[in-house]
Amino acid sequence: MNLGDTFLLRAPTEIRHLHVAIYCHEGTLVLVNVTTKRPPCDDSCIVQSGEHPFLRQESIVAYRHMKVIDPVRSFYVEKQGILKLYDPVSPELLERIQRGARESAFSARKAQELIRRILV
Questions:
Q1: pLDDT tens across 86-100, in order?
Q2: Are 20 and 94 a contacting pair, CB within 8 Å?
Q3: pLDDT at 27
Q4: Could you give phi then psi for residue 28, rounded to 5 degrees?
Q5: Where would I find the beta strands (DSSP E) of the chain?
Q6: Dist. CA 19–CA 29, nearest whole Å
Q7: Distance (Å, rounded) from C-alpha 15 to C-alpha 119?
Q8: Domain count within the chain
Q9: Is residue 12 in a domain?
Q10: Using DSSP, how many helices (H) and how many strands (E) does the chain show?
Q11: Is there a domain that residue 1 lies in?
Q12: Is the pLDDT of residue 111 over 70?
């Protein structure tokens, strides 16, 4: 998986949220999902309709559901065919999502530390 890659999880219990890889290094991934904007919400990163082909309405990045995935789980998820891949996000949107992850009070601390390593 690469930075900015997007996908849906093909799990029966998973709601159809677009996931974005915002950190990829030595097999470790940080993933966030994008969901419809409904107040009250964390508006650290608002994504407009059309900024990605999957998104049809104003959305937010749900940092409270951020996942840090270790290399073993990352390999398993990619090889099991449970991902439905979509177009990657633009470099500009990726940077906004990463900056939001660094600033959001809802981001996991471990993820924030990883993101700080790649943002200048």
A1: 999 999 999 999 999
A2: yes
A3: 84
A4: -80, 135
A5: 6-9, 18-25, 28-36, 46-47, 59-61, 67-69, 83-86
A6: 12
A7: 30
A8: 1
A9: yes
A10: 3, 7
A11: no
A12: yes
Structure tokens at 47: 């994504």
| CB neighbourhood size of 67 (10 A) | 13
pLDDT of 74 higher than 90:
no
Amino acid found at 53: P
18 lies in a domain? Answer: yes
What is the value of pTM for the model shown?
0.88
Q: What is the DSSP letter of 1?
A: -
- The pLDDT tens digits of the residues spanning 77-87 come to 777 767 888 99
User: Could you tell me which of 28, 6, 29 has the C-alpha nearest to residue 18?
Assistant: 6
> How far, in Å, CA of 33 to CA of 15, rounded?
10
Lowest mean pLDDT among 2-11, 21-30, 101-110: 2-11
Domain that holds residue 18: 6-118
Q: Is residue 38 part of a domain?
A: yes
Runs of H (alpha helix) within 38-103: 71-79, 91-103
